[in-house]
Amino acid sequence: MLFTTPLFLLAFLPAFLLAYFLVRGTRLRNVVALAFSMLFFAWGEPVFVWYVVAGTAIDYVFIKQVFFRRDLGEGAKRLGLAVAIAINVGALLFFKYANFFVDQFQPLLATTGWSRPAWYPVVLPLGISFIAFHKISFLVDLYKQRIAPPASFVGALLYILFFPQLVAGPIIRYHEIREQIESRSTGPDDVLGGFVRFARGLARKALIADPAGIVASSVFALPPESLPFHVAWIGVVGYTIQIYFDFSGYSDMAIGLARIVGFRFPENFNQPYTACSVTDFWRRWHMTLSNWMRLYLYVPLGGNRVAPWRLYLNLWIVFLVSGFWHGAAWTFIAWGAYYGFFLTAEKFCERRGWDLPVPRVVKQALTFLVVVNAWVLFRADSLDYAARLIARMYGLLPQSRPSPEPFALIFQPIGLAAIGVGLLLALVPLPTVLRRVAAIKDSEAFDAIRWASGAALFLVALASVLASGTSTFLYFRF
């Protein structure tokens, strides 16, 4: 079930909010939220939902019966953590990467004369990557006793299955919402702020990401040799806009929905395309993933407190893992290696005090160019296609044959307009007047303006969904 479908917007969401606010007390509201979350997940994964429930039950047993047992030694607890993480990582590797590894070993089997074993492709369950990251951080934080364990299994399961963040984040650490699970309240400002945030996310998805995505998909469906220079760039920039507004739109909707019912989720984006370095970009893009990788992989590897060569190796490891986490394909591994190269280069220059003596706008433009090139690897179906498209973008590959499709059919006005508006919103830093909006919050008209703007965005986006439909969120595949 997608947030942008009429079924969700006009049936599921109203039913959930009605049931939620009809009951009183956090415990009953947790039961309602969990029941609707299980229904939401089971709508697309009626079998896998029980795997998530069973897996969370196993985690809960480890937490209660191992991590917080005073009669157990540290060695036993560490072994329990290793076993619990192995179960979760093993499930992720099987569901997400089994098909990839079978395909990679097939040529090796062929050289030895062995026939390919009977293999039924494994279907990728919805949101398994995000579920795995939530569960691993849950286990590690409680093993280290950074916070008290959940008061009940319902609370633990709600943390994992709560539907706003279930399939595409933000990635939330348990300590960030534990107190909210145990006790929370919702005021008028939460409902208003959450509704406006949800409407903004819906508009980002339906009015910018989807039209830009039509342009991008049309270009990426064509052979690079058939693309004029400017068409290749428009398609790639279209995807650059699509993935940002698609994913940030989902995050806005998740954060908004959670706030309506009293949860405060961490921010996931901070105008990443205004970054002035690749390091800065990753502080702004998918911030909860970057924070997760830093806390649970980079720091345990030694982080910055190691020799320079080891620091660079740590960065490479983190981004190779990040690339492989995004998808079981060589393009994602290359995408991770690409960022690993630029981050290590920036760290190398930083340690020597080297800095380009150019204006901020030039640094932003160069960083944006690096990011645009990276999205080609992320979007392409193969390394060969990505290499040919990048070569065509820079004139290194000649246009050897005409396009099989008139470009007037690719570049529909609504798609070009969405890309233009998206570039404006993504590349221009927020004006100072918007950063100081808190100064006018005491105005009697402020809430009315927020309601009106939220309602307008919601209605226009809903009309777009009803008129032309919507595509799935890009990060659902991860």
DSSP strand tally: 0
Question: How many angstroms separate the termini?
Answer: 16 Å
Largest sheet: none
Beta-sheet strand percentage?
under 5%
Helix fraction? 55-70%
Total helical segments? 19
Spans with pLDDT under 50 lasting ≥5 residues? none
Write the H/E string, N to C. HHHHHHHHHHHHHHHHHHH
Roughly how many Å is the radius of gyration?
Answer: 24 Å
Morphology:
globular
Average pLDDT figure: 87
Give an overview in words.
This protein has 478 residues and is mainly alpha-helical. The longest helix has 38 residues, at 74-111. The chain has helices spanning 6-22, 26-44, 48-67, 74-111, 128-143, 153-161, 174-182, 188-220, 229-260, 278-284, 287-298, 308-326, 330-351, 360-379, 383-393, 407-410, 413-427, 432-435, 446-468. Helix content is 69%, strand content 0%. The two termini are 16 Å apart. The radius of gyration is 24 Å and the shape is globular. The protein contains 19 helices and no strands.
Features:
mainly alpha
Short description:
By secondary structure, the chain is an all-alpha fold. 69% of the residues lie in helices and 0% in strands.
Task: Set down the secondary structure blueprint.
Elements: H1 6-22, H2 26-44, H3 48-67, H4 74-111, H5 128-143, H6 153-161, H7 174-182, H8 188-220, H9 229-260, H10 278-284, H11 287-298, H12 308-326, H13 330-351, H14 360-379, H15 383-393, H16 407-410, H17 413-427, H18 432-435, H19 446-468
